[in-house]
Amino acid sequence: MLIDSHAHLDSERYAEDRAAMLARAWEAGVGAVLSIGIGEQAAGMGRALEICRQFNGQSGVPKLYASAGVYPHNTREINEEILGKLDSLLAEPEVIACGEIGLDYYHEGAPHAVQRVGLIRQLEVAAARNRPILIHCRGKDDSTDAWDQLFEILEGHWRQTGLGGVMHCFGGGWEQARRSLELGFLVSFAGNLTYPKAQPLRDVAARLPLDGVLVETDAPWLAPAPDRGKRNEPAWVVQTALVLGELLGKDKEEIASATTKNFFRLFDIRADVGN
Ligand SMILES: [Zn+2]
């Protein structure tokens, strides 16, 4: 069984065929999907949980988990009400992670200082609810500012929780991967690992220990080769897993069982998760 550790199942792009899309994932061997709850805007972050509840208990579809969090570029929307909503979502048994949260200095959006404050406030909520975090980190071109500031924040506000998390859609270099592992994080690879120009990323992946990696789709974005450019979906996590397995010298079964084990180790250790 494979786990898609990051998919935006609440995307409007699945409005017409969400059930069929999940059935295809199950057919492809995807046993579980972490449904990311950031919404279009912060107020919609509970939609992922609704989708979880709609499908869990049905046969022929993956088991669904949810997250909740305020995306870096939506951090201007953070106020007491939003933080209260985040806190109550994280209290739900299906909501096993806070995210995706972090820093995005690549796209124009929320000012960097607003993103940093928004991240720190969410770390406090996640820590109080004992939930690991899902980090989105993207810098501008070759600058490591976003990563440097991310690690500074995690060292000051997260390491001591011992909860760890996931570096989602990892796009950093070896130094960032090494520091992530050292902070107790798993490094998760999306479909871009399969792209022709991603050799530097594949070189980093090849150096990682088997117990430090996850795979994801980030669907509906980042469809892996050969479907690049199409709407992505959890079934296609298989392609990324095959490429990662090849890099680590593991066959399909070995990479599937390792990434599944890693996922459950990170999240299942919470006694109150209830799954
Ligand atoms: Zn995402």
Description of the molecule:
There is one protein chain. With 275 residues, the chain is an alpha/beta fold. 39% of the residues lie in helices and 16% in strands. It contains nine helices and eight strands. The protein has helices at 18-27, 47-55, 80-90, 112-128, 145-157, 174-182, 199-206, 237-248, 252-268; strands at residues 2-7, 30-35, 63-68, 95-104, 133-138, 165-167, 185-189, 213-215. Strands 1-2-3-4-5-6-7-8 form an eight-stranded parallel sheet. The two termini are 17 Å apart. 50% of the residues are buried. The model is unreliable at 269-275 (pLDDT under 50). Zinc ion (ZN) binds next to loops.
Pattern of helices and strands: EHEHEHEHEHEHEHEHH
What is the rounded Rg? 17 Å
Given as residue ranges, the uncertain stretches (5+ residues, pLDDT < 50) are: 269-275
Q: Strand order across the biggest sheet? A: 1-2-3-4-5-6-7-8
N-end to C-end Cα span: 17 Å
Largest sheet: 8 strands, parallel
The residue-averaged pLDDT reads: 95
Overall number of strands: 8
Percent of residues in helices comes to 25-40%
**Bound compounds:** zinc ion
Number of helices: 9
Structural class: alpha/beta
User: Which outline best applies?
Assistant: globular
Q: How much strand? A: 15-25%
Question: Which features does this protein show?
Answer:
275 residues; alpha/beta; 9 helices; disordered C terminus; binds zinc ion
